[in-house]
Description:
Number of domains: 1
Number of strands: 0
Distance between the termini: 20 Å
Order of helices and strands: HHHHHHHH
Pfam families: DoxX
Structural class: mainly alpha
Number of helices: 8
Protein name: DoxX family protein
Subcellular location: Membrane
Membrane topology: Multi-pass membrane protein
Transmembrane segments: 6-24, 94-114, 121-139
Radius of gyration: 17 Å
Amino acid sequence: METIWLSGAEWFAVLRIGLGLWWLESWRHKDKKTWFAGGGIGWAAGIAEEHRWPFVRRGFDAVVKPRPKLMAYVVAYAELALGLGLIFGFLTPIALVGGLLLNLIYFVLMIHDWAEQGQNLMMALISVGALFAVCWQSWSADATLGLFL
């Protein structure tokens, strides 16, 4: 594939790094004190409680509601791990699939909020494109270590 300036693999590495920076920003902008005190999960509980799809309410009540502190840490540190993994290209396919799943969870939970949907759909699209383009071939710890060849 001929491209301007960079190779196709390098352009997908740019997308991968940009997606990693986006996840890192998701982690960075959280008010950690409020988030870990239950603010984030409390907000999500309100969304789930009024959700138009009953399976979302039931799933939230079964998985998240009984363990709000643990889930707050899981969400925040998953975003941090995804960001760092994608930026440095370490365990990249795992990070891409994990990020795609997290975006789909956010998408389903926030189905009524179109502003959030744009972000989640764009991040999911980049994840799928980067995954199928094998974006860890360039500028990554995975390539340096010979992982996922």
